[in-house]
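Narrative of accomplishments. A recurring question from our advisory board has been how the design workflow behaves on a single, concrete structure rather than in aggregate. To address it, we present the structure tokens for one chain from the evaluation set, followed by the sequence designed for it. No filtering or post-editing was applied between the two.
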């Protein structure tokens, strides 16, 4: 595999698979495509993204030719819950979309096509425990019907045209990065979000509904391991069983309770219960283990620990942002109140009631008055120089001008090692440039192939009366570039800088 196309790259699995393939095969060699107009930020910022409808065979042909694609991971599909509500659309996209990919695979002589299947292929007539590789396939959901037909189609193209086509039957996939796209196992992701937020979880499956599940890291590993396996050693092709763990809503709830003792759950089964009841409890994946050495790394305990760790971290950072935003609102409200007091006391100086007014000035207003009298607050512009200024450059400069009493606008640029630019709107605590302020800042570090990341968020900036200034805040990460360390996959970063300001 040298030039890879991922179709369905904005989905739960496609988005994480694309990033992993880019790490492995290079950003430029993995083209992401999906029908969605707006891809996830990381997909857009790490490589090429193309909008494609897999139903449009001509457009797909052009896309494959344009990028000289040799391998396709085809993940565009309508999942079980949505498919049961729209059976005809589910059939059309899951079957005719796959048919387009397979046809073009033969026409353009592609090296490899991977089309995932699902545990939905089995119906009620198989053994529920450890369902074996070659069990009877009689699904009762439309999604299951399309997955069986999809597997058969792939096998047909392997035997009839010698196309290298592979697939694996994913169980329910659990991820802390992307939300699921309308499946029956979505509860196993949703439940973690409720646990972390401290909410009671309303489960749409009954407490003893046992289903096979897999952590996303294992799902990505299985997909890439199968894609890289030696074709000649494969006896099966499109339908490998893969397993990692099986649990019921009650079991995962109890596992979470070990970390979150106050967590509560309520079981309110809906139409998805019937779909789940038609699925198996556990899967025998000995063919995958034998033919391409499949082995999962996460069981229920390791997965629960990791999910809670990552989601709690994200949740805490989100809370910090809210607290910072509240602090900013409080600070600007306070600053406005002070300015109004100062203004009204000056206006009333000639008034006969000036003594009363002076008495009624709050204690916070008096330092403002003193500063105004001393004259050091008269400047309304400043140049700031220092470390991580100018949008996060190692050495950067910003220019700030007060456009209203308390409000300044700032822009700047930095140099070394990758260049930067940035800007902000500053809400000063007092109506002059030398005062401390809360700012909403944009940082942009690096460009094009050297792009590191961009951030936006609130920052508190301390300014001493003479020259020194330092800022600290939280920035939501808006984009991540090729230079970003993707093992450090956080949504929010600490932003800070330190340096000198020169008012004039
Ligand atoms: N997530 C699971 O738990 C799970 C379990 C078993 C099997 N699977 C299979 O794995 C594959 C990927 O699943 P997922 O969970 O990432 O699904 P998802 O619904 O999250 O993503 C599917 C993606 O396909 C895109 N898409 C839909 N119609 C399209 C079209 N006409 N053209 C181009 N793109 C289109 C959607 O925009 C979406 O981004 C599917 O084949 C699914 O059946 C998933």
């Amino acid at each position: 595999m040298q030039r890879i196309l991922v179709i369905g790259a904005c989905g739960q699995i496609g988005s994480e698979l694309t990033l992993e393939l880019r790490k492995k095969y290079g950003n430029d060699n993995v083209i992401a495509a999906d029908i969605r107009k707006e891809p996830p930020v990381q997909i857009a910022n790490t490589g090429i993204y193309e909008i494609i409808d897999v139903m449009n065979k001509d457009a797909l042909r052009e896309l494959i030719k344009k990028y000289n694609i040799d391998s396709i991971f085809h993940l565009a599909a309508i999942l079980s819950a949505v498919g049961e509500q729209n059976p005809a659309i589910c059939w059309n996209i899951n079957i005719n979309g796959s048919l387009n990919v397979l046809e073009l695979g033969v026409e353009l002589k592609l090296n490899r096509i991977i089309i995932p299947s699902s545990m939905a292929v089995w119906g009620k007539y198989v053994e529920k425990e450890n369902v074996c590789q070659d069990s009877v396939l009689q699904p009762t959901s439309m999604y299951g019907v399309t997955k069986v037909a999809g597997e058969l189609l792939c096998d047909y193209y392997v035997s009839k045209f010698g196309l290298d086509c592979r697939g694996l039957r994913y169980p329910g996939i659990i991820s802390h990065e992307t939300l699921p796209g309308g499946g029956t196992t979505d509860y196993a992701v949703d439940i973690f979000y409720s646990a972390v937020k401290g909410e009671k979880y309303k489960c749409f499956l009954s407490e003893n509904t046992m289903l096979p599940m897999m952590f996303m890291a294992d799902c990505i590993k299985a997909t890439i391991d199968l894609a890289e396996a030696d074709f000649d050693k494969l006896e099966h092709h499109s339908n490998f069983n893969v397993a990692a763990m099986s649990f019921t809503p009650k079991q995962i709830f109890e596992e979470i309770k070990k970390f979150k003792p106050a967590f509560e759950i309520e079981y309110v089964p809906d139409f998805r219960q019937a779909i789940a009841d038609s699925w198996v409890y556990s899967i025998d994946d000995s063919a995958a283990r034998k033919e391409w050495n499949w082995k999962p790394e996460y069981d229920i305990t390791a997965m629960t620990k990791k999910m809670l760790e990552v989601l709690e971290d994200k949740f805490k950072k989100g809370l910090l942002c809210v607290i910072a935003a509240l602090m900013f609102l409080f600070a600007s409200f306070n600053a406005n109140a002070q300015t109004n007091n100062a203004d009204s006391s000056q206006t009333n100086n000639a008034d006969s009631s000036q003594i009363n007014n002076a008495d009624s000035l709050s204690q916070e207003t008096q330092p403002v008055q003193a500063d105004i009298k001393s004259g050091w607050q008269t400047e309304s512009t400043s140049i700031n120089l220092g470390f991580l200024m100018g949008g996060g450059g190692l050495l950067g400069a910003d220019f700030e001008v007060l456009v209203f009493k308390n409000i300044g606008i700032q822009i700047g640029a930095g140099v070394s090692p990758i260049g930067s630019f940035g800007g902000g709107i500053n809400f000063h605590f007092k109506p002059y440039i030398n005062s401390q302020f809360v700012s909403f800042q944009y940082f942009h570090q690096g460009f094009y192939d050297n792009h590191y990341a961009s951030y936006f968020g609130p920052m508190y900036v301390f300014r001493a009366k003479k020259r020194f200034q330092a800022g600290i805040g939280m920035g939501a990460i808006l984009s991540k570039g090729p230079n970003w360390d993707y093992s450090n996959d956080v949504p929010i970063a600490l932003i800070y800088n330190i340096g000198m300001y020169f008012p004039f």
